[in-house]
Amino acid sequence: MEKKLEQRTCDILKVVFYGPESTGKTTLAQMLAAHFETEWVPEFSRDYLQQKWDEEQKACAPEDILPIAHGQMELENQKAAEANRVLFCDTNLLETVVYSQAYYEGHCDPGLLKHALKAHYDLYFLMYIDIPWVKDDLRDRPFERELMFEKFKKPLDDYNKPYHILEGNFQERFETAVKMIEELLKKNEVGL
Question: Domain NadR/Ttd14 AAA: where (predicted)?
Fold first, then answer.
């Protein structure tokens, strides 16, 4: 079962959009993938949980966490094989860990945590909460945005993950991200 959580190695850059709900992760992943003419990895849990909501009117439960993680890593591994120089991930296993801990009294499957920490990303864009929260069927914490931001930031600091906080409107975030990714690509091409 843990095999489904393994990230395949590849020689492209991996950039992940990470952070609380309704902070623009999907929008920026799509924009940057189009700009750099490459692939992006959708957030598996959105479709999985929307289907559950539509069919049963039920929210995420602890037993959903591992199927979500398996689906996310399967999508990431598939898209990594198709990507051109850089892959943009709209979430990753570490995000699933944070949500599991935040919603289920600090609990997270040990195998999920192990693989989340083992997975390699060249850069995390931690999305700040300075854009408006947008309601949908799955989002439920409009008044806990600051608390959730800190819950996402903590593991990046604790595990020394390379990250940059993206702030401002979408255009400002996009321009900052483009510059940083171009720098990473240059370093990667010269082998620094």
Answer: 14-173
